[in-house]
Amino acid sequence: xxLKVLVTGATGQLGLALLKQLKNTDYNVKxxxxxxLENFNFEWVYSDLLTGEGLKxxxxxxxxxxxxxxxxxxxxxxxxxxxxxxxxxxxxxxKHFIYPSIVxxxxxxxxxxxxxxxxxxxxxxSSVPHTIVRATQFHSFVENLFLSKSLxxxxxxxxxxxxxxxxxxxxxxxxxxxxxxxxxxxTEDFGGPEILTLREMAELKIKINNEPKKVVSLSFxxxxxxxxxxxxxxxxxxxxxxxxxxxxLIAKVN
Length: 254
Hints:
CATH architecture: 3-Layer(aba) Sandwich
Shape: globular
Distance between the termini: 39 Å
Number of domains: 1
Structural class: alpha/beta
Largest sheet: 7 strands, parallel
Number of helices: 9
């Protein structure tokens, strides 16, 4: 089927993973972002979810939108909530609006997660045909946030909190498979293949990289720590991904 697919947030990690795979399909791909990508021959339209500039032109004539644009920074409420609302207002003719979200956002007390949950509610209450699919955190997110730097040859981490990290390329492939499917509203989660504590993840990285380091596990007060400790960011029933954190780390070394 000949469909015109718009990818928002094309310069982000998920956006780039989508584009790498979409270039090998027959879809007519259009991308939108604030910065133009030079390595792809897709039609590009400048747009800014903060101001609304360029959104109408970006959405014009497209059949499917994969909304990969997001911002975990302080402007998250403007990008992920207000920006999405404006985008939905001009997407009434779209056949399928695919929205990647995050597992556990209703149970984890972070502003960014609250905004993602608000965004889901906007979609649920809109007339735009849509699919919401939640993923667990990407392998690279966990590594960059917790395991990228050590102090005095030690990884100082909240070692008991749990992650079910997933490969971004696998999740991107799952989103692409949804393009021609019937919009499902909120669909099943896309989780990584295993649930590990952060201590186990740090020890895995030390082993693979042959690092002369140790892991020091810390505890923290507060609802956020308890939510992650209880695995609210995981879904043990949805171990869909195949690429493990170990395989991800080995690939980086090689």
